[in-house]
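hey can u check if this looks right to u? its 90 residues, i copy pasted from the old doc so theres a chance i mangled smth
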Amino acid sequence: SYPYHSMYGPVYPASKTAENAITLAIMVELEDADIKVNLVSPAFTATNLNAFAGTESVEDGSREVVRVCLLGPDGPSGTFTRWENQSIPW
């Protein structure tokens, strides 16, 4: 009954899983370094990739990316968030 069921294929989900795994590995490797690594999900953003079917605008999807990019030296590392600083559990 999921409306996007017919669009689900193996390539995109596998690439996102690999991206998350690589990011997590980098977070673990650098956790004692002075380098911050954070992962952001921009939500289902309307882009050419999904024929602009996304429910969020590019501006809304970019909001959390910009917030994380502007974290200062005392900001967190090792986080996975979606827009409006909502934590995503690993």
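Residues 11-29 form the longest helix (19 residues).
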